[in-house]
Amino acid sequence: xxxxxxxxxxxxxxxxxxxxxxxxxxxxxxxxxxxxxxx
Length: 39
Fold this sequence. Notes:
With 39 residues, the protein is mainly α. The chain has one helix at residues 15-28.
């Protein structure tokens, strides 16, 4: 079973940047990563 990591914040607070960096780091360590956006 996988894990769900939630990143919350105001508009312009860097959520997209942080989620991209997190996903890159996880993939570099061999962990599969999938970003999903909820409205």
